[in-house]
Design goal:
By secondary structure, the chain is α+β, with helices and mostly antiparallel strands. It is built from 5 helices and 17 strands.
Length: 288
């Protein structure tokens, strides 16, 4: 295979891309580092803090269909990150071409299928098997209090749940779209609650119809007030809706996120009858 401009890439490399968008002004920025072997944990943490995006993915080795991947926010390692995986898939597609790449995360293997559609590379990750459990009242009440929400703001048709598809997220569905317009909370207080509960983000959603959801995701445990696109929680949501009998599978839906932040993102979710959830999106370079 010939690389762009007939140049063989040099490693290690660090690229910056925005995922779940075709416009550099939208989506969720991620760093992607690729090298012959992973740096030490302190070095990965240092690089992620320097990149200063919500997550940076670290991938090794530099070639092959099976690789190890780790994810770091500016403040801590994250078990799984969807948007950085999409960015990684698109970058691998640019370097090595279309195909399926298998990534070993700390939570299990995740496959990423990369293909060109409409002249742009698109990546589709398939998560580890999802699971969920009802949100415990103490956790639910604590989070609602910090967010300034009330029980009456919630959509009874999608009960609060902690859902997992590589990372854990508290899913709260709003009854009305207006509930998502304002997002104000005590950063340190919510971070403390989430750390105690082992949560990566809070996924605040409103269901517009059976195929379109809107989402906002506070991410204080990563040092970020709000995430503009969260592929891990998209997968967790798909698994929760299917396994709780709230969505007939197979099914697909779109998540619109980041619009209130001025970084519109689109996450396409495919829910099979069993197994991992597939989340797809584009990614565009930020450093060219």
């Amino acid at each position: 295979m010939q690389h762009p401009a007939d140049q063989t890439p040099s490693f290690p490399m660090l690229r910056r891309l925005s995922a779940f968008t075709t416009d550099p002004a939208g989506g969720n920025p991620a760093g992607v580092w690729i090298g012959t072997e992973l740096p030490s944990a302190p070095e990965m943490q240092r690089i992620a803090a320097e990149v200063a995006f919500s997550e940076t993915a670290f991938v090794a080795p530099t070639s092959g269909a099976y690789r190890t991947i780790r994810y770091y926010s500016p403040q801590a390692e994250v078990s799984f990150c969807g948007h950085a995986t999409i960015a990684t898939g698109v970058l691998l597609g640019e370097l090595e071409g279309e195909g399926t790449y298998r990534l070993a995360t700390t939570q299990g293997d995740v496959t990423v299928a990369v293909r060109r559609r409409g002249g742009m590379l698109e990546a589709s990750l398939t998560s580890v098997p999802p699971r969920h459990e009802p949100a415990q009242p103490a956790l639910l009440n604590a989070v609602l209090d910090v967010l300034g929400w009330r029980l009456g703001d919630l959509d009874d048709s999608i009960p609060p749940a902690v859902a997992y598809a590589g990372a854990s997220h508290l899913i709260l569905a709003a009854r009305e779209s207006e509930r998502l317009v304002t997002l104000e909370y005590d950063f340190d207080q919510l971070k403390s609650i989430m750390l105690d509960a082992g949560l990566t983000t809070i996924q605040l959603i409103w269901r517009e119809n059976s195929t379109v959801f809107h989402s906002r995701n506070p991410f204080p445990v990563g040092g970020v007030v709000e995430d503009p696109a969260t592929g891990a929680s998209a997968a967790a949501l798909g698994g929760y809706l299917r396994d709780a009998g709230l969505l007939p599978a197979p099914a697909s839906f779109l998540i619109r996120q980041g619009e209130t932040m001025g970084r519109p993102s689109q996450l396409r979710v495919e829910v099979p009858t069993a197994g991992g959830i597939t989340v797809s999106g584009n990614a565009v370079a930020l450093d060219r």
